[in-house]
Amino acid sequence: MSLLRYESQVRPALVEGDKDYHQVTEDICRPVEAKPSKLWWIGFIISVLMLGFGILSVTVEVIYGTGQWNLNKTIGWGWDITNFVWWVGIGHAGTLISAILLLFRQGWRTGVNRAAEAMTIFAVMCAGQFPIWHMGRVWNAFFVLPYPNTRGPLWVNFNSPLLWDVFAISTYFTVSLLFWYSGLLPDLATLRDRAKKKWRKAFYGVAAFGWTGSTKHWQRHEALSLVLAGLSTPLVLSVHTIVSFDFATSVVPGWHTTIFPPYFVAGAIFSGFAMVQTLLVVTRKVLGLEEYITIEHINVMNKVIVLTGSIVGIAYLTELFMAWYSAVDYENFAFFENRLNLNSPYGWSYWIMMGCNVLSPQIFWFKKMRTNLVVTFFMSILVNIGMWFERFVIIVTSVYRDYLPSAWSTYYTPTIWEVGFYMGTFGLFFTCYFLFSKFFPVIAIAEIKHILKRSGDNYKEKMDVVEKEGTIEFAEKQAHDH
Amino acid sequence: MAVQKFITGNFYDEAVLFPAVKKVRRGGYKIHEVFTPFPIHGLDKAMGLRDTSLHTAGFIYAITGTATAVGFITWALTVDWQINFGGKPFFALPAWIPITFELTVLFAAVGMVLTFCYLCQLAPFVRKDHFNLRSTDDTFVLVLECTDKTNDAEAMSFLQSIGGQDVQVQYKETGWWLGRYDKDTKRFERKAEAAH
After folding, report:
1. ipTM of this complex
2. pLDDT digits (tens, 9 = 90+) for A202-256
3. Domain spans of chain B?
4. What is the C-alpha separation between A195 and A29, in angstroms, rounded?
5. CA gap A58, A133 in Å, rounded
6. Which of these, A11, A296, B89, B139, could form a disulfide with B134 (CB 3.0-4.6 Å)?
7. Does A179 touch chain B (CB under 8 A)?
8. Average pLDDT, chain A
9. How many CB pairs under 8 A join A and B?
10. Contacts of B83 in chain A (CB under 8 A)
11. Which pLDDT band, with edges at 50, 70 and 90, does A9 fall under?
12. Are A99 and A179 in contact (CB under 8 A)?
């Protein structure tokens, strides 16, 4: 029985207020069943407009070619690949929360995992846009797939990190989607069974796949979730590792380092959690879910941010040390002249990165800061800016001056279409997120109910008796009861 | 699939449900199913359900993925069309690890989800009969199977005595059919009333 799991009273409640199972359903379904607010419409329309501008930018790029972007002979990867890595990184928090924290039996994940997983899927969708449209002749995009063709058949290069990326990102997207949706089924069934309107019954009836909640189905569902979590855990680590291979397997100074995989993964978790904070600090307020996404959740996620931010900081310092220790002139030049030197053309971007990623998160050592919503929101934006600059620094400062001074490029600034494309992915992301928060329960209802009697506020009070009894006697007594 | 007769009782607390399940089994009644709004650990054991083999299926899908990746890449790059990439060996196994891993995960995940949907009869437009709409909200619904020999009144009072609330006889379709949840076809209900 669930009470067999002992939980200390010292641990703060994960669900606040006097709740029973029905109240949980009511609270989480309310925003889905209510009419969208004016604020929702404003946000949604702005997102759609941004998406529209993104579509225009991409159309211009497809018609006139990637020359519409300010990429040049040396800087072949500019904003587009920066944005790609940035979005993929953001897409790591959802799976981390839902998979790794499931394996670690972290109860607090139940409040935030559904929204974080949705965020993952939307972020990976945005990320996928960049390499696809960066191909230029996008109508030939299917060339990346190994299919029997009339050119030999000439197969794709399975030894290339760029192809690994194709497999990694598409697998990651598929698995995240399956994980998210299989978890959603019971909650969609809840919405279906509560539905009064005809279209709701039809929509959630189709979406819930005929879920009934039978014990046998739950047993299989639990097995499925656990195995998918076990599969997603190495998957999430592999994806950003492979993204880092895009750089690390090349011989460009500043990219050719073995530290890249762990450094990228830590950075991905760092930026992903920051994006989760940005979204959830707003979502919990707007949808009135403060009792489910509590200050404690924010606090715990801020701890992850300060941890991963510090790991990233150590990685930056290690890179500098290795550049110096290697005694390779090109490495030294890339790190100490192109990046660290504030007077070099892109020195400013390195110091924005350092400031936002390494220095500023250190305020989260203080609990007062971790539990302050305004600080958290502001910091989450700052971290995302910092992480965007990390990728910009890695890509642009490494390639704009590499081996031959004759090949050094002029100062690279993006065109309106590059910026518009980036804005468009924001539009895509937020359009999806607004639709999700309107039509799907943003918190995993069934999972909250599962932890309610262990971690709910009103149930924790009653655990006094249990505390005094001692775990072993309590467990034995419970076992004898049935 | 056919319409069958069931006796259902509602429970609102796991602490009542668990002993009830045990007593029902000791009493010689057959549990058709227990519907719960969330997974209750140990309930499957209490009901005497066997463990699911979904893990095993997942493992088989996973090694299928591994074999597919290694087999296909080996064939494509060493047999079908050899390409010399900077003098490296054609059979460059270490470079294939990432794709092999990704396909392993992909096959396992997709295969398991499809198997899960097949076993639980889950798909869009699949419709099943409900015993209680609140079973996805806050109610645990214990469903007993009735045979010709079952004494309805006795079974109902037994279910009440072990804590079941709102105990009633229900005639329900046990299988699934294609349909929508906003349109009641009622083709099975009529048949059930006739049998009653």
Report:
1. 0.90
2. 899 899 998 998 999 999 999 999 999 999 989 999 999 999 999 999 888 889 8
3. 23-51+152-195, 54-119
4. 10
5. 7
6. B139
7. yes
8. 87
9. 220
10. 157
11. low
12. yes
